[in-house]
Design goal:
alpha/beta; Rossmann fold; 2 domains; 6-stranded mixed beta sheet; 4-stranded antiparallel beta sheet; 23% strand
């Protein structure tokens, strides 16, 4: 197996896109994505989210500003070579219909002149990484796969040559909610393994909150309204636009990105019977779900097999009232 390519930083330095008819798609966007982090772009339809991704890999050239990967101006190199360094995953996958799964994943390594043995090893490694059985799926064609399986193959293809950067444009929006949740879970597991620098576009705030290390909220014309971790976006929206976009239920959404504060864990009550419990690493949403399911008015918190204490609804409320 090849050593993993180090993740790259992405910097957008006052990047803008204005079309000949005067329409502003993106307005002087400045954004930094640290190496190994996942930043999500959200905003209303037509606000320039996809345009930002296309300017990074030079499918669209910016009208102003610079795009830098590891401080290197991407406009100064060969665009084809640049795209081979950047993985790109889109909503409808875009797999080649007359090629097998194996050949689809091998696309970029083959263009780079890798040996057949090296390509085969990489294909098998990636299919395992995205949770697809090599024996069952490598020889199939796209039409023989489910929507979720096609998305997994699309992600594997984007990772084919171990890119430093991954661009993802609403990759999970074309599948049903159950499959989408599973793909999100698998994607988080995969990112914990590969730690790529990722820019991810979605129209779904819940998806952004679940996946993103940081969220960039764009308004019409690609104007940056706020760029911050999910808890800060939900707890301290920077403007009325951000507050409206993330929704009136942003306090509920914060449950999923807020951990259990150890200082709020109370002593265990002296009761027997089944005790609903969560690990100390759980978030408040998971704790509240167990609390409601258990019907005891509280939920136990444990560290491995050791019980630390309990929290109740007042503690959950107090945790949310703290500054994000």
């Amino acid at each position: 197996m090849d050593a993993t390519r180090p993740a790259a930083t992405i910097r957008l330095d006052r990047v803008g896109k204005r079309y000949a008819n005067g329409t502003v798609a993106v307005s002087e966007l400045t954004l930094d994505v640290p190496a190994g982090e996942l930043s999500v772009l959200v905003g209303p339809s037509g606000c320039g989210k996809s345009t930002v991704l296309r300017m990074i890999n030079r499918l669209i050239e910016p009208s102003s500003g610079k795009v830098l990967l590891d401080d290197e101006d991407v406009s100064r190199g060969d665009p084809v070579g640049l795209r081979r360094r950047i993985g790109y995953v889109i909503q409808n996958v875009g797999l080649f219909p007359h090629q097998t799964v194996r050949d689809n994943i091998a696309t970029v390594p083959r263009l780079l002149g890798w040996s057949r043995s090296r390509i085969d090893e990489r294909v098998e490694e990636l299919l395992d990484l995205v949770g697809l059985d090599v024996a069952l799926h490598a020889g199939r064609y796209p039409h023989e796969l489910s929507g979720g399986q096609r998305q997994r193959v699309g992600l594997a293809r984007a990772l084919g040559a171990d890119p430093a950067v991954l661009l993802m444009d609403e990759p999970f929006s074309a599948v049903d909610p159950i499959v989408r949740a599973r793909l999100q879970e698998e994607f988080l597991r995969l990112q914990a393994t590969v730690r790529k620098t990722i820019m991810f576009v979605t129209h779904d705030v819940d998806e952004a909150v679940r996946l993103g290390d940081r969220i960039a909220v764009l308004s019409d014309g690609g104007k940056l309204e706020q760029y911050a971790p999910p808890g800060e976006i939900l707890g301290r929206p920077a403007s009325a636009f951000v507050a409206s976009f993330v929704g009136a239920d942003r306090g509920i959404k914060r449950l999923a990105v807020t951990g259990i504060p150890r200082d709020l864990v109370r002593p265990l009550p002296g009761t027997g019977g089944d005790i609903p419990s969560v690990p100390i690493t759980a978030n408040l949403r998971e704790a509240l779900a167990e609390l409601l399911e258990g019907g005891t008015g509280w939920v136990a918190v444990r560290d491995g097999d050791r019980a630390l204490g309990v929290i109740n609804p007042d503690d959950i409320y107090a945790a949310l009232r703290r500054e994000p």
